[in-house]
Amino acid sequence: MWFSLTLNNPADSYNIEQQLQCVRMGAGVEHSYFATLKNRTPIEEIKRQIDAVGFKNVFLTTDVGQVDSPYADVAMQEYIERLELVGVTESAIEYMIKDNPEMLIR
């Protein structure tokens, strides 16, 4: 069983050790672009957390839809581009936006 540990508000964030503990119990960690878009969590911190728990345990979302936010497809493209700029590989990103979410709906 795989469930989501959502980390889109840094005030509520789990530290890396807590994330790892949740992953060991079967959780997948969700990182939402909204937190970075609204300057709550730097993209470098998202990368650090992805590296710490492993991309196979992470899925990426946008959490946009607010009037002042970009459309979801634009936001996801921005998220991908920013992650690539800090060194997240294309294959890891594909896994986090395609393969991991697929596991949630199986």
Overview of this protein structure:
With 106 residues, this protein is an alpha/beta fold. Helices cover 52% and strands 13% of the residues. α1 links the parallel β1 and β2. It is globular. The mean pLDDT is 88.
Describe the structure using short key phrases.
single chain, 106 residues, alpha/beta, three-stranded parallel β-sheet, 5 helices, 3 strands, globular
Helices and strands in order:
Elements: E1 3-6, H1 16-24, E2 27-32, H2 33-37, H3 43-53, E3 58-61, H4 72-85, H5 90-105
Parallel strand pairs: 1-2, 2-3
The string of secondary-structure elements, in order, is EHEHHEHH
Largest sheet: 3 strands, parallel
Assign the structural class, choosing from mainly alpha, mainly beta, alpha/beta, alpha+beta, or little secondary structure: alpha/beta
Overall, the morphology is globular
Total beta-strand segments: 3
pLDDT average, as an integer? 88
Uncertain residue segments:
none
Task: Give the gist of this structure.
The chain has helices spanning 16-24, 33-37, 43-53, 72-85, 90-105, and strands at 3-6, 27-32, 58-61.
